[in-house]
Design brief:
The complex is a heterodimer of chains A (259) and B (343). By secondary structure, chain A is an alpha/beta fold. Helix content of chain A is 31%, strand content 25%. The chains are: A alpha/beta (259), B mainly alpha (343).
Chain lengths: 259, 343
Amino acid sequence: MSQQNNSIVKIKELAVGYGSKTVAQNINFELEHGVLCGIVGVNGIGKSTLLRTLAGFQPKLSGIIEVKNKSLDKHSPSELAQNLSVVLTEQPASKNLTVQELIALGRQPYTNWIGTLTSADKEHIQKSLDAFLLQELRFNKCHELSDGQLQRVLIARAMAQDTPLILLDEPTTHLDLYHKVQILKLLQQLAHQNQKTILFTTHEIDLAIQLCNKILILDGDNNPFGDPCELIEQKHFERLFPSEMVQFDAKTGSFKVNK
Amino acid sequence: MHTPKSYRFSFVLIMVALLLAWLLNISSGSVSIPFGATLSSLWGKPVEVASWQYIIYDYRIPKAFTAILVGGGLSLSGLMMQTLFRNPLAGPFVLGISSGASLGAALLLMGASLATGLTSIAFLSDISLAIAASIGSFLVLLVVMLVAQRIKDTMALLIIGLMFGSITSALVSVLAYFSSAESLQRFIFWSFGSVGDLSSEQVLLLGGIVALGTLLGILSIKALNAFLLGENYALSLGVSLKKSRLLIIIATGLLAGGVTAFAGPIAFVGLAVPHLTRQIFDTMEHRILIPAVFLYGAILMLLCDTLAQLPNTANVLPINAITSLVGAPVVIWLLVRKRKMMF
């Protein structure tokens, strides 16, 4: 019973897609408190579709999605907003918002009808600013930020929403290696120190292997899920890409180009 | 490095400016009334010339309040449209609301004379014109709303609104081609726009419509702020997309439709004022922007109307021309100065 209470998100026999077109199916996994989990797979395999379905932006085709032991579609919109936050690939519609204003919007599920911030809300905003090293930038407009800074702001907003589950769609695209690692380290910190369950899609397989507690590989077949080391031992990464171009090196946990 | 500002001082400033613009508007007009006499008349003291009292209370004060309601209402609807459609160039014209009102007015003024074969339309009162324009704008709004239920993409909705505008203005042209010179003239005068000639009852009615639209806007503040992130983010923050969009569209329809019905189609105020307001109130928070934009729009409209009056002459310029002359260069200036207009 105690194990069941720890479950933040539980996926069983899930199929996702659009209308009659199934993009990915046979997806099974379960995540508990404080787990950092990466979703990897080739382009077009359904990573973003899966994430959009988990966020409730589009209906699932079949299967079970449970957030905190309750079916996703049974959650009311406001209840869901207190359990699940998102960081999307799309840019915020208005970049005229200041960093602090944007992060403050994360508190909306908790504020009154006109959006007044209580001292508890302000504390959450301050913690998010600190955690993502944004104290200096708090009054800057979003259009003045670099890609890496903006990504930190968007994740800080999700942190301010204070939900047990955070979903991120490719949080490291368009960033250089240093900032990719920075973002992923901050996510790891958020997962372990604040006991958040974080699920993100990524193409940085070698970084994911080093930093994630769990990895879900979407391969269009049985979609293996588990500890990175287990998955390496079971040789799942070898089958990720057609082997004539790149090859997985199990010793270093990274891909090598075939010369 | 920006520092956060308290906007209390700016609000005091803008309120004082509104009062001054209101006094300026009331003290100028076709009949020259000394400023002192205007003030003492407002204070309730008797003035030298009896007709002055009448002019101030029965003409100029209703006109000044109409200007406040028209400017504030149009600006507020422009602000909400820009946020809802995530488009800095959105305004009351975009949803086709103003053209819907034009179609209603055109059908009444020109269609009625065509249908009955009467050249005289003296039996048509101003109130029936307002009703026809309201019906026209709400019919267009209703269709746009029905489309909005089916289409998720707001950009598509924006283009559909523009198409409705084109269709209605084409119908107006057809009507104009076949109608008599006299009814065409009446329609042209309506389309010039005017904040005068409203009775106190009409001003009250317009006030009620604008108050209702503003109230709905205030109720949508949280949703409007969430929409600044985009619709998917708003959804993830627990905002009910359909309900909020409907509420905001009804609010903008009431504001823009009501104002256009009584004052004619007035250009650029809805588009330009939100951008002008952000020059002073540099924030995206709708709790601050809604009152600020309303006040700014009211001031601008009072000043435009004062200009249109051509002090001490009997001539009144079309207010639509004045707002365009003021508004269009402002939009160009903003575009050139900031290169990319943001909302």
